[in-house]
Amino acid sequence: MNVCTGNVLLVDDNDVFSSAVVEIARQAHCKITATDKLESARRLLAERSYDLLLIDLTLPDGNGLDLVQEIDLASQGRVTIVTGNPSIETAVRAVKSPAFEYLIKPVSSEALALLMDDAQRRARAHDPGVVHQFGGMLGRTACMQALFEKIRRVATLDVCVLVHGESGTGKELVARALHELSGRAGRFVAVNCGAIAPELLSSQLFGHERGSFTGAMQSHAGYFEQAQGGTLFLDEITEMPPSLQVYLLRVLETRSLTRVGGSREVPVDVRLIAASNRDPQRAVASGNLRSDLYFRLMEFPLAVPSLRERREDIPLLVRHFLDRLNERYATNKDFSTEALRALGEHAWPGNVRELRHAVQRHYIMAGESGRIEMQREPEPSLHPASGSDGAVRFTVGMTFDDIEREMLLKTLAHFNNNKRQAARVLGITAKTIYNRLLRYRSQELIDDDLLDDCREEPAD
Question: How confident is the model at residue 360 (pLDDT cuts 50, 70, 90)?
Fold first, then answer.
């Protein structure tokens, strides 16, 4: 059987530790190369890439962190610092570098074995037979390959799926991939539960009959019926009012619905995929998600990793976004090594969506040479500035969610956080504003005091 072998580079001058690592690597069927000098390590790294790099700090010809700073993020795997002489200074340098692990000797055999297992997973992910692009998503890291495999396994099964992950990680792409692989002949219908006023969500989801409420001039087939034979994707499921969650559960259980104002039961054949950027269990504890619906949706949960959990995919993603821009505008721009490193070290709280917009900004600002040099990636301002002049400023690359949030927070600040006044100006309800603020707080985009300082309670 052809087994992918994880390639490991050990840079350490401690014979006892090196012997232990070599033996554990052998038991894990990893191929290990060991050296005790920076000079030879640089030569080895120039010749090939490794799935795992274990680098000591104190070496005969220098500091291991100097080697870390030279590592090409696009071509190397997991980087781990090991040291028998820890210090605050070196720990701070390690945290600021591409090495996100700082292990202190003696390192247990169990910890080393886990590192070797991860090297094997990375080797499999880099195998020529592994697909790095899957259903509109890109990823060669072990966590993304695991996600792709789970999607393949559950796609054809008629079970509910709950996709959860931070904003900007690509939850809708996961849902679309599930639909495309499902073999279902019907449509893929995507609904953002947080973008529809609560009083309208019922008729939008389940449909309504003519005359069922003021303005219902004709019958309307809701999203469930529109997705007949296909897939319905309910994003931000925790924004759905609890009363509707009860009815949604009934529809899932009985596979039939009754339109608003109607009496006839309509059978539905729909595969439901729900998504939330909140932790599902916390959403249940806070009352945003009913426990009975939670257990129904958790037939198969899918967690989408954040970008900081898959930093090795950043060069791959950057290249993909840049290639699309170059193709669209018939250019040949490229990032410098320093610029790519800067992108790899940024926090990316907005995940892949934020990275895509950043690549676009850097592309636009590149000089005539076409070389995109290192630029400091600005940290997003998520709070209305004190002493604001009342102006709302938008920039190229902002998402519609960012624009909506900026408009809402600036309007609230203008009216001294009076939701009713802000709602009248914006043409929405105070309840909608309150729901948005709850969502922003759950995403850690605003402080609790902004929600608490609102002058009036939301109207029902």
Answer: very high
For residue 202, pLDDT beyond 50: yes
- Single out the residue of 380, 411, 410, 375 nearest to residue 395, CA to CA: 380
Q: For residue 49, which phi and psi values (nearest 5 degrees)? A: -105, 160
At position 168, the amino acid (one-letter code) is G
Task: Tell which residue, 412, 410, 403, 458, has the closest CA to residue 431.
Answer: 458
| Rounded Cα distance, 246 and 252, in Å | 10
d(CA 33, CA 11): 9
Assigned token pair, 24: 């554990």
* C-alpha dist (Å) from residue 196 to 199, 376, 409, 431, 432: 8, 37, 19, 12, 9
CA-CA distances (angstroms) from residue 400 to 76, 136, 394?
36, 21, 10
3-state secondary structure of 162: strand
CA distances from 206 to 75, 175, 254, 403, 409 (A): 50, 20, 14, 30, 32
Q: Of 55-64, 173-182, 374-383, which gets the smallest average pLDDT?
A: 374-383
What are the two backbone dihedrals, phi and then psi, of residue 428, each rounded to the nearest 5 degrees?
-130, 180
| Type and span of the H or E element at 311 | none
Whole-model pTM? 0.58
Distances (CA, A) of 237 to 98, 193, 200: 36, 6, 15
Please spell the DSSP secondary structure of 181-229, one letter per residue.
HHT--S-EEEEEGGGS-HHHHHHHHH-B-TTSSTT--S-B--HHHHTTT
Q: Mean pLDDT, to the nearest integer, of 269-277?
A: 95
268, 222 Cβ separation under 8 angstroms: no
Only one residue has tokens 């969506």, namely 353
Across 71-92, b (16+ Cβ under 10 Å) vs e yields bebbebbbbbbbbeeeeeebee
207's torsion region: left (phi>0), alpha (psi -120 to 50) or beta? left
Phi, psi of 218, deg, nearest 5 = -150, 165
- Average pLDDT of every residue of the chain: 82
Taking residues 298-303, report their average pLDDT.
94
**3-class DSSP string for 43-78:** HHHHHCCCCEEEEECEECCEEHHHHHHHCCCCCCCE
Which tens digit of pLDDT belongs to each residue from 153-198? 999 999 999 999 999 999 999 999 999 999 999 999 999 998 888 8
Nearest in space to 8 (alpha carbons), one of 57, 50, 68: 50
Q: From residue 238, give the alpha-carbon distance in Å to each of 91, 241, 366, 442.
A: 40, 8, 41, 11
